[in-house]
Write the structure tokens for this entry.
Amino acid sequence: MADANGADFVTVMGEMELVALAEHTFTYADTIHAVVTVIPFQSHSVSLPIIDENTYYTREDLYFRRHPKRDLYCMPPPCHRMCSMHPDLTERHPAIPILRFCQECSLWLHIKCCDRADATGPSLLPPMPGRPVQPQNVAEVEELRSRGDISYTVGEWIIWTELLRLPIQRHGHKQSKWPLSFELVVARIRAQDQTYGCPDNVHEFLVDNFGLACHLRSFFDYFLGEFRAWRCTTYYTCPTCRSVI
């Protein structure tokens, strides 16, 4: 980097992360050796597909602008006004901290900036008007199924309720050194439950809504297995709205 501010900029980058220049550049065509896949996403939204350790990625709200006297850097914003991991505050902001998403506030939060919650699952948004009646236990599943009101089995319902206990989380899966995230599929599970409830076939729903980067299709079974094996036992409280995340 061209000036002292570059040190802060480097601390927020991952090993496979690329950063956009905020101006047009030109290069000779014969100097291009290969075309690579780069996965874009936004730091502040639920938008990161499932990627592996060899995938290049870029945060669209993180950029670098050259300047004759002092280069300019757009840094990631703090997770909230009391964020303890922002570069301007007490700690350096690591490239891939563990983050949880609060749907009530539409905000990503470092788990280090949140208090632990005594809860067995995250807070869910209230169901949409017109959502079919959802069973609350196995007996209700069997009763609704016997009346023909639902098509899914007790087994499908149990799997679905387990999936609803998963947080919307970025990084922290199996100590990966890249931002592995199942945020898209968990957000889609919650949207399905909020609108329609448990699907008739949970596996088909996951296949259709998994959020795997397109260039990793051949690894679908592996990542689906990793997702299905994921269990969460620790939840946190959003410092703004007090929702469990």
Remarks:
- The chain has a mean pLDDT of 85.
- The longest helix spans residues 183-195.
- Strands lie at 20-21, 38-41, 56-59, 63-65, 72-74, 99-102, 107-110, 115-117, 169-170, 235-237.
- Helices lie at 6-11, 138-146, 154-163, 183-195, 202-209, 220-229.
